[in-house]
Each structure stands twice: as C-alpha cells, then as structure tokens.
Sequence to fold (458 residues):
Amino acid sequence: MQHQTALVWFRRTLRLDDNNSLLTALADSASVIPVFVLDPMILSHPDTGARRVAFLYNGLRALDAALRERGSYLVLRHGNPTEELGRLAEESGATALYYSQEYEPAGRARDARVCTTLRLESNACLDHLLSEPESVKTKTATPYTVFTPYFRVWQEQAFAVPRSTPERIPTPPGIATEPLPTGSTAFPSGELAALAQLTAFRHTTLSHYDTDREFPAEPGTSQLSAYLKFGMLSPRRALEATRQQPKSAGRDAWIRQLAWRDFYYQILWHFPHVATGCFRPPFDTIAWHNDEALFAAWQRGETGYPIVDAGMRQLTQTGWMHNRVRMIVASFLTKDLLCDWRLGESYFMQQLLDGDQAANNGGWQWAAGTGTDAQPYFRIFNPVSQGEKFDPEGVYVKRWCPELKPIPPKWVHKPWELSVNEQAAVHCVLGRDYPTRIVEHSEQRTRALALYKSLNCG
DNA sequence: TAGCTCGTTGGACAA
DNA sequence: TTTGTCCAACGAGCT
Fold:
C-alpha cells in the first residue's frame, strides 16, 4: 500500500460503477474517504440552474446510499475546494488525492490550484470520456476540428472495458460531514436510475434510434444525457451495453452521438477560447441586435412560431428539450431574432438538466455558424418546414402549446394562414389565445444573410 | 507542395 | 406533389 488514507474527490463521476478514480485509490490505499465539496462559487454562478443543483443533490444522496452498502459513506463539505480538501486531509491524515480528469476551463483551473496548493499526491483518472482529447489527433499531431475525420479515427480506438463496482470500500469512521441536502426533481437521479434507463433504452429505442430520434413527439431518444453529464453513467458502460445489441443503423447512430460528445470535449480542451468567444474569431465582430423584448419572448415560448414555442416551453417546464428542437430554437434565436448565441447558451445552461458546457457550447456555435464546421451561412432553419417535416401531425406542438389543439394539422405550424373568421371558429384567435408572430421569418432570413455576408466580405 | 475532396442534422425555387 | 439544382466559396485533412 502506498497510502494509509486517500481522498477520493467526487465532482462528476457520481457513480461507483466503472469509476477509475475510486478503484485506483482503493488499489493504492488501505482506506479511502469519498468527499464532495459544494463550492459556493459554482452554486451562485448565473448559469448554474436550480434544477441541475436539485438533481445533483439527489445524486449525492444516491451516491451516499450506495457507499453505505459497501461500508463507506460520503463526506460532504461546503466551501472553497482547496481549503476544504486541505482541512479534510489534515483531519484524516490522508496523503493522496484521486479524482476524475476535468476538461472545462474553470474546472481545469480549479484542479490546478488544488494540486499546486495541497501537499498531497494528486492522481487524475480517466472516467468522463471514451477517448481523451490528446489521443485522437491528425497525422500532423494537431487536434481535429471537423467531426467526420475525427470520427474515423475515434472509431478505430480500443476503448477500455468498464470495470465493476468494488464490493467493499474501507473508510475510517467518524469523519465530520455536513448533512446532505435534498432537491426536488421529476427526473430520477443517481446511478441506479441511470443504469435502468440504459437497459430500457438498449432494449426498446436503440434499434430505431437513427430515425425515431428525429421526431420530437416520439420517445425516440436515449434520455441518458443528464446521467452522462454528471457521470452517473459511465460512457464506457454505455458503449459496451449498446455494442452488445445486434448491429443496426440505430446502434451506429447512437455510438456516433457518443463520439460527438468526445468531439466537443476535445474542442473545449484544445480551444478553451470557445467558452467565451467564437471558434472562428472573425465571427466575434457580428453586430448582434440583441433585442431584449424578442429575447424574452423566445425564453417564454411566445414567439408565435409553434415549434419554437413548444420547445421553449418544454425546456422551461421540464429542464429538457428534444435535440431536433434545440437546433430549431437555436437557429431561430440567432438567425431570426439576431441575438448573440451566448444569450441562448447561457439560458440553456440555466434551464437544462443535462446542461454540459462542452456539448451546449458546441451545439450553439454550430447553430450560429460560428463553430467548428464550415456550414454555409445561408443554411437557416425554416421553423415552419422543420415543424411540418418532424412533427407532421402537430402532436408535439399541441402537447406544449395546448391552445393550438383545435388547429387542424395542416395549419398547426402556420396558424397565421387561417383567416380571423377561421381562427374564431376554432376558438384559437392569434393575439388572444396564441401569440402573433414576433418576426416574419422570410424577412429575418434576408437580414441574417446580409449580416453574415457583410462579415465575410468585410 | 499543390491539388483534391469533402463538410451531422437545409431551404428556395423551378420544372 | 415530388424531385433536382443551386445557393458561395473556404478551410480541414489527406495524398
């Protein structure tokens, strides 16, 4: 044994299954102290949504329960991580620190401070991604910035086999811990819930994932994003479980999504400036209009465009939005309302249960056309045709905008084409029962094209 | 080095 | 109603 006592610092990776930091600490030490530090700097950050905090709290309770089944318990501290971990090491005589590698700029800076300040042997373990940012590179050893060539190399990698939960976790008794807070969430938290969802997904939705996931009214998505974000589910476990299923287009599409997750993490790792600015700096000069009233209408789901409003209401009410609809509302905010993508990125982080900086930032920059792919700038989503294509009967739209229920499917994505008399006849009058359009798409499309084009020329 | 191919998720318009 | 074509041109990544 290298150490009598080691600290296992949980941040994400809120699981015991396939947890390398925990398993490595156990291999190196006679006893371990699982600890989580609630950092007031993070809790008070504007992008830290209350919903995600509640999910975290319940996840900590689940983690503590799982630890107790194995003779351990979770030590909770509240404060600055460097100070709290230093204090805990002093109290317990711990000589080593184990944690999962972090990739976001703020987390990397925090970990660097902890490691340089504390006199502990520090060990970063690989738990959050399938493929590390440094392990997939071009032939000239530069990071990939286009997904397809990245994916070709990513696929060829031999991914580590997931490791099992340790049977016993020896922890010294009597370490002072603060009471675990409770949160209120509709979505079940913790790794048992995550593994149950993984099982359900691979046996039901997976084989048709490639097509079904496009239709927001259908339960065609994995529902695993929040678990992956908090590490309640190991990506290695997720990959292995799905690879055990028969080969299908659905399975391939899902594995591709796991690669996208790694891809955006490695973008954030190699190009940390994307956290605050455009991946392509010339786009930082776009003169966004940022009209506050339009932005507020978008947030409330009162733009007058049913597919946009349905998505925004789903987000605000549940903390989740279907991915197809995320693209539509993001395109609408940036291209139709001419608002800075960072406004949308921040609002998503406040609301989303699965809010993850790497994926969220990558998605927003993609939608805004400022990101890693060379999407032609004139590709602007049409909210009406997107609605008609992916929600043809209007089932999704009517679920979240019930005032549109009496509108026949043919008009449900463009109710303004009904005459005032027709609106009155079905008791859905625009401006009374449902908002009139705050902008006209074809006009705004022209303005957005001009805005982007002037940038390219200028 | 120079040349080649290709780029997650599209839309408008004409035929 | 469906299908094909153009939109404008750049830079990543490979050979």
